Amino acid sequence: MGDRIAGKVCVVTGAGSGIGRATAVRLAEEGGRVLCTDLNGDTAAETSELVRAAGGVASARAVDVSDPRAVDAMIAEAVERYGRLDVLVNNAGVNIPGVLHEVTDEVIDRTLAVNVKGQIYGCRAAIPHMLAVGGGSIINISSVNGIVSEPYLAVYSASKGASVMLTKGVALDYAKRGIRCNAVCPGWVDTPINYAHAEMLGGLAHVYETIDSFQPIGRPGEPREIANVVLFLASDETSFMTGSVVTVDGGMTSQ
Ligand SMILES: NC(=O)c1ccc[n+]([C@@H]2O[C@H](COP(=O)([O-])OP(=O)(O)OC[C@H]3O[C@@H](n4cnc5c(N)ncnc54)[C@H](O)[C@@H]3O)[C@@H](O)[C@H]2O)c1
Q: How far apart are CA 161 and CA 192, in angstroms?
């Protein structure tokens, strides 16, 4: 156990899988007290069990980030349980790929409700509690698709571009009041969110065989490699960083 964020109270959305789970574990390894939340309450509970089994402090809650009242209640629970709020990781997301002229209303609404409104609701709910303790750190998980797009990802890319601009807006509005807000833009990381997109590109095995063609490092990222950067942004080590858009992408956007 380290102490890079000792005592900080953290909320992670989408903590039941992939990047969110790795982030909850990593924050707790460095002394954070973590409320792990996910649409799937069982997987959120598994994550908090993982943390506790390793000697960390965590609890879990089922939360749909597209429901503003559920997001308010999530933040209220963190403050009630741990006494304050220091870090919010807006990580929950969906990626439903498709050819744009065939995309349904439901897919558009779901994508924007989770990926965009969910992050807005999270910031709105967290900020008063961060102001109350003199500051905090918000990390929005965007994507390389907030900067560049890829085939079949027009709607997802629109949502992740919005996440980048939400980050800059929050950073500006609260820069003098101690709240930092940064975006993390992962490249292709090995998690289930990509499976539907991989199918459209010829299957996951094919994507990984040819990953060199779009991700110069030549392999998918691991969730922990993203979590390490989130931890850095959550910590006071990044006290001069706000409004930054941090690519963690094996060189993808360098091309
Ligand atoms: N894996 C990648 O290659 C990659 C790349 C760039 C960005 N991202 C982003 O990283 C974030 C995490 O994705 P991941 O790769 O860990 O995928 P994942 O599928 O492993 O995890 C996503 C989690 O979000 C949860 N979720 C979905 N809808 C939700 C909702 N309405 N409320 C609460 N939780 C909800 C899911 O239940 C799941 O546990 C997402 O925002 C995603 O867009 C992932």
A: 21
